[in-house]
């Protein structure tokens, strides 16, 4: 994608000559898939985040799917997540034949609200309704959820936790790095080009649990094993493999892994750059009729997104501001349409009014350009357009 047009996108990858060289070197090597680079990428991400195991797959969607299956999510199970997320955080439960429900968001962080979670858990218990088997908190915009509180509720009510950290590689909650699984069973990252680092398409599931890692690794490749210890029958010979459960082809290629490994080197400076851009937005937009993102001293956001909420009574409402910015060549976006309002979720019985805070948030939210390669002059253009539109 060239940057030669005047359009400023809301997110964009950064590809260096080193990235290109790393991918080309793999292309000329013996292995395009299932070679040595994939395991190196897994180990590098796991080490950077403080996890024992990383399982690389071809998307975060696939990672969420194998994570659910590894935690035995299936027909009769129940998964809860945030309505303010991308479709994949909820769809993964449905791939497994499980039930899905949502927990409304906190109006300041826009993350799954731990008080709302407690209220919903207590109400379900009191009414004799099923409790969730798995809860999937989403670190929206890169800002970590209240993981200590959610983990404590998991202990009290007996659910497991998968963190959808698609926005949050490089973030920290207190002194815990997102990915170290201190408060969860599995953490999932996305490497889609709009995310913090990219493999074009790709994702990873991190865990401290060797058995979960083994199972996710197997599910990534048809549920096959070549390990005699896992086989039902005695091995027939060195060629022998067994499918011991139903899996998929969710493998990441060596080209993708090489790109990710090269990108990982720049993770820290990129997040620093995102913080400097956010500082400038915070300062320059403070006087406008906007609710700016919450920045907190007790956690470090990866700042995947910079979302502002347009105040009621502002000169332009969100829809009009969106149109004005797009006309001026600024690729603003909206994250997210509440998942429960999608036609395919309404078909399951969800309706407008079910999660009022996520719905109210959605009416006002607009994502401004935020990516490491965004230049100061381009950011100033965005700020000037916002000032002109809102004063
Ligand atoms: C991008 C994203 C996903 C899906 O990631 P893919 O790698 O595109 O499958 C899942 N959850 C959230 C919150 C995301 O932003």
Could you characterize what this model shows?
There is one protein chain. This protein has 391 residues and is an alpha/beta fold. 37% of the residues lie in helices and 13% in strands. It has 13 helices and 15 strands. It has helices spanning 17-27, 37-49, 60-70, 88-95, 114-127, 147-157, 210-219, 254-264, 267-284, 318-327, 343-346, 356-364, 376-390, and strands at 53-57, 78-81, 99-102, 134-136, 160-164, 172-173, 176-177, 186-190, 203-207, 224-225, 242-243, 290-291, 299-300, 306-310, 365-368. The protein has a seven-stranded mixed sheet with strand order 1-9-8-5-4-2-3, sandwiched between helices. The protein has a three-stranded antiparallel sheet with strand order 7-6-13, with no helix packed on it. Strand 4, helix 6 (147-157) and strand 5 (160-164) form a beta-alpha-beta unit. Helix 2 (37-49) packs parallel to helix 8 (254-264), helix 3 crosses helix 7 and helix 5 runs parallel beside helix 6 (147-157). The two termini are 34 Å apart. Residues 1-5 have low confidence and may be disordered. The chain binds pyridoxal-5'-phosphate (PLP). Pyridoxal-5'-phosphate binds at residues 59-61, 85-86, 88-89, 138, 164, 166-167, 190, 192, 203.
Describe the protein's topology.
Blueprint: H1 17-27, H2 37-49, E1 53-57, H3 60-70, E2 78-81, H4 88-95, E3 99-102, H5 114-127, E4 134-136, H6 147-157, E5 160-164, E6 172-173, E7 176-177, E8 186-190, E9 203-207, H7 210-219, E10 224-225, E11 242-243, H8 254-264, H9 267-284, E12 290-291, E13 299-300, E14 306-310, H10 318-327, H11 343-346, H12 356-364, E15 365-368, H13 376-390
Parallel strand pairs: 2-3, 2-4, 4-5, 5-8
Antiparallel strand pairs: 1-9, 6-7, 6-13, 8-9, 10-11, 12-14, 14-15
The protein binds pyridoxal-5'-phosphate.
């Amino acid at each position: 994608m060239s940057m030669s047009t005047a359009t400023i996108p809301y997110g964009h990858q950064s590809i260096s000559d080193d990235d290109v060289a790393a991918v080309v070197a793999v292309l000329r090597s013996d292995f395009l898939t299932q070679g040595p680079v994939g395991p190196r990428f897994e180990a590098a991400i796991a080490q950077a985040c403080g996890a024992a195991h990383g399982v690389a797959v071809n998307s975060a969607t696939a990672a969420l799917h194998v994570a659910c299956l590894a935690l035995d999510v299936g027909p009769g199970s129940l998964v809860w997540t945030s309505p303010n997320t991308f479709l994949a955080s909820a769809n993964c439960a449905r791939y497994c034949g499980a039930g899905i429900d949502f927990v409304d968001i906190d109006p300041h962080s826009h993350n799954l609200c731990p008080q709302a979670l407690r209220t919903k858990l207590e109400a379900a218990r009191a009414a004799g309704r099923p409790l969730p088997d798995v809860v999937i908190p989403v670190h929206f915009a890169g800002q970590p959820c209240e993981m200590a509180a959610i983990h404590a509720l998991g202990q009290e009510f007996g659910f497991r936790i998968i963190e959808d950290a698609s926005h949050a590689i490089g973030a920290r909650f207190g002194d815990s790095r997102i990915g170290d699984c201190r408060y969860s069973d599995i953490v999932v990252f996305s490497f889609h080009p709009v995310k913090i680092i990219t493999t074009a398409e790709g994702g990873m599931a991190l865990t401290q649990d060797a058995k979960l890692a083994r199972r996710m690794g197997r599910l990534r490749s048809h549920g096959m094993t070549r390990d005699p210890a896992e086989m039902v029958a005695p091995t027939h010979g060195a060629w022998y493999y067994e499918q011991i459960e139903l899996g998929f082809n969710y493998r990441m290629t060596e080209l993708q892994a090489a790109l990710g490994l090269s990108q990982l080197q720049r993770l820290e400076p990129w997040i620093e750059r995102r913080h400097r851009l956010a500082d400038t937005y915070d300062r320059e937009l403070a006087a406008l009729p906007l609710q700016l993102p919450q920045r907190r001293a007790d956690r470090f956001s990866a700042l995947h997104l910079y979302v502002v909420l347009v105040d009621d009574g502002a000169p332009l409402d969100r829809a009009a501001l969106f149109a004005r910015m797009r006309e001026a060549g600024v690729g603003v976006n909206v994250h997210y349409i509440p998942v429960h309002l999608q036609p395919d979720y309404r078909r399951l019985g969800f309706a407008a009014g079910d999660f009022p805070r996520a719905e109210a948030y959605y009416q006002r939210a607009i994502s401004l350009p935020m990516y490491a390669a965004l230049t100061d002059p381009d950011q100033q253009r965005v700020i000037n357009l916002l000032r002109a539109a809102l004063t």
